């Protein structure tokens, strides 16, 4: 029997993953640090539980004994991805996570040769970060192979989980980023703004340091990439004000204070909220001759897509023998993968 594991299973997204895995007839091991919460979740779903932290390699090795795949859902991934990936490399277990953090993608990509030697797939960003946008980038590359510029944007309503919000706070001090001529370049928050159209209505958007600045470059080779989030004009103004506070926001005591407040106040969207809200993804490419292509897709709420997107990749890996190495979602599953997920449709 093949054993696989959800780490951080008692977190907001981890619980959604566990419930849907059981609905699909899968039997993951539920793992993380919180013994009481994990045992209650395991009893609810009739699933085995393992309790271990990520501070000691020996503890991770024991937790991953006889495991062939890890779906890592415990952020912030800036702190947790590297030790879990090392554990997977040692154990010979495929590594998936749901990060959107550029630096985590870069770290995982840097382990490509080691992953190939161990015969494991390393695929960070298996959820809403970055399955839909990465697939849209790959679809656009297929439609305009000589594209030199890529624009990606998204609108995600319904609210954020505690983990997502904590990661966002951690990233504020780093500011924004874009990719120019193949290189990641630091820019201010809300460096650029533009408008997208959603069913004929305008949506203002600002540049954000989304993970596709790394993954879409790997997937497409396009050297000039900007990523946008649709928000209100007031949110854009607030983001630009935050640029003045970035040195303070990088001070660890301030980050810890804000993250504690988030943990106490943010609960994540309810099932009803997820069911009543959707997301929109826009993509544009152009080449040196001025030719353009556009793709727009409509998807379920980002958390629901995270669950179906990640578990689809889990099931693919559990049922296949593949060469090891770093992969992006479209690189492993194909550009059309997002269009195969429940509730996703291409608009344009």
Molecular structure report:
- The structure is a single chain.
- The protein has two domains: about 5-125 and about 305-335, Rossmann fold (3-Layer(aba) Sandwich), CATH 3.40.50; about 130-300, Dihydrodipicolinate Reductase, domain 2, CATH 3.30.360.
- The strands form three sheets. A seven-stranded parallel β-sheet has the order 3-2-1-4-5-6-15, sandwiched between helices.
- The protein has helices spanning about 10-25, 35-45, 55-65, 75-90, 100-110, 110-120, 130-145, 160-170, 210-220, 235-240, 245-250, 250-265, 270-275, 300-320, 330-335; strands spanning about 5, 30, 50, 65-70, 95, 120-125, 150-155, 175-180, 185, 195-200, 200-205, 225-230, 280-285, 290-300, 325, 345.
- It has 15 helices and 16 strands.
- With about 350 residues, it is of the alpha/beta class.
- Strand 13 and strand 14 form a beta hairpin.
- About 45% of the residues are buried.
- The mean pLDDT is about 90.
- It is globular.
- About 45% of the residues lie in helices and about 25% in strands.
Keywords:
alpha/beta, Rossmann fold, Dihydrodipicolinate Reductase, domain 2, 2 domains, seven-stranded parallel beta sheet, 24% strand, globular
In short:
The chain has 348 residues and is an alpha/beta fold. It is 43% helix and 24% strand.
Spatial order of the strands in the main sheet?
Answer: 3-2-1-4-5-6-15
Low-confidence stretches: none
> Helix/strand/pairing class, anyone?
alpha/beta
- The rough form would be described as globular
Secondary structure tally, helices = 15
Which architecture of the largest domain per CATH? 2-Layer Sandwich
SS elements, strand count: 16
Biggest beta-sheet profile: 7 strands, parallel
Radius of gyration from the alpha-carbon trace, in angstroms: 19 Å
- State the end-to-end CA separation: 43 Å
In the CATH hierarchy, the third-tier topology of the largest domain is known as Dihydrodipicolinate Reductase, domain 2
Mean pLDDT: 91
Determine and state the CATH class of the largest domain.
Answer: Alpha Beta
